[in-house]
Amino acid sequence: MGDAFPASPLTPMTMHTTLFRTAAAVALALSLSACSTFHRTPAPGTPLADVTARLGKPDAVYPDPAGGQVLEYRGQPMGQFQHMARIGPDGRLVSYDQVLTDANFAKIEPGRWMQADVLRHFGRPAETSRARANGFEVWSYRYKQDGVWNSFMNVYFNGRGEVHHTDATPDPVLDDRSKGL
Question: Has this prediction a pTM greater than 0.85?
Answer without folding.
Answer: no
